[in-house]
Write a structure and sequence with these properties.
The chain has about 325 residues and is an alpha+beta fold. Helices cover about 20% and strands about 30% of the residues.
Length: about 325
């Protein structure tokens, strides 16, 4: 993170608004209490908010509220997950574990600009701020009220990688404002003959001639009743060959690609498959960020090497990649 002195050094009106709100709530105190924060008073900011709660002995940071905007670009809702359970390796210059330790030590707001790697391998920036929230003693930092936003003029939406962002509802008894997990995208099975699926593939110049056949499964990624993308895999022995992965044009750059791939891997895991393979010409950085490693073509198992994708449809320049499937 490239730190700046205050919200005045950032372009986000949302961060400026949350700064004013936090200052008003703390009054003459070092920081406000959680009971001072009323989500209804900052409703327009909620999609961009990230609330972290700190545990001591040992120190751990748990994300207790993840706004819908953050969940979308992260590729899924990670409400209820601990920082040390997640992989933020697409962040290029922020050591988040060290950051949180310093944050509770300093007990004051922080502002900055973070860089991250998009699913297409491009570097982008977002603006960020975190505000300390006190425990009952009024001194110890119990929570962090964070906010993230794209700077004015940015033409893309971030898609920071989160590994296994398992959505879940927090335990009963948690404060109401912390008990609302964001609704995330989900997969639904579709037929290989689905007209919209084929249209989307054709528009992306991806093959459709080999969609039919035994052992081929396809899914649509849906969110709020809207299609975000499609993808599937072939069952080849104990292996899965990922294929036909495409995001609707207007939805690209929002992190749906990561969500889709994670969903396909989860479906393959349900079937007991041990690893996933794919061929790509243009998306090596994207799949590498998801744990796929490049392989020489001659190491492909016979079940993968005999597929039509491998032998006919993908050119020799396409890179072969592989990763284990967690059961």
């Amino acid at each position: 993170m490239r730190r700046v002195a205050s919200a005045l050094d950032l372009s986000s009106s949302k961060i400026a608004g949350l700064t004013r709100y936090w200052e008003a709530k703390r009054g003459r105190r070092p920081m406000p209490l959680w009971s001072d924060i009323d989500p209804a008073e900052i409703k327009p900011l909620l999609p961009h908010l990230l609330v972290t709660r700190y545990e001591r002995n040992p120190f751990r940071a748990r994300f207790v509220l993840v706004g819908t905007w953050l969940a979308q670009y992260a590729g899924g809702d990670f409400t209820g997950r601990y920082l040390d359970e997640l992989d933020f390796s697409s962040e290029l210059d922020t050591d988040w574990p060290s950051f949180h330790l310093q944050f509770i030590k300093d007990a004051r707001p922080t502002f900055g600009v973070c860089r991250f790697l998009t699913e297409s391998g491009l570097e982008r920036e977002y603006e960020s701020a975190m505000f300390p929230i006190a425990g009952e003693d009024g001194i110890t930092v119990e929570r962090a009220l964070g906010i993230e936003d794209f700077p004015v003029g940015a033409d893309t939406v971030p898609d920071e990688r989160i590994i296994a962002p398992a959505p879940r509802v927090l335990a009963p008894g948690t404060a109401p404002a912390e008990r609302q997990p964001s609704a995330g995208p989900s997969l639904a099975p579709i037929a290989a003959t689905d007209a919209e699926f084929r249209r989307c593939l054709a528009e992306a110049k991806l093959p459709t001639s080999d969609l039919l056949g035994a052992g081929k499964r396809y899914f649509v990624l849906m969110e709020a009743g809207q299609c975000r993308g499609y993808g599937g895999f072939e069952l080849r022995g104990s292996h899965a060959l990922l294929r036909s992965i495409v995001i609707e044009g207007r939805e690209r750059g929002h992190g749906y690609g990561r969500t889709l791939v994670h969903g396909l891997l989860a479906e393959a895991a349900k079937l007991g498959l041990k690893d996933a393979w794919l061929l790509t010409e243009t998306a090596v950085p994207f799949f590498a960020a998801l744990g796929f490693a490049p392989c020489a073509r001659d190491v492909a198992p016979p079940e993968i090497a005999s597929t039509q994708q491998f032998t006919e449809l993908c050119p020799a320049s396409a890179k072969l990649m592989r990763r284990e499937i967690a059961g």
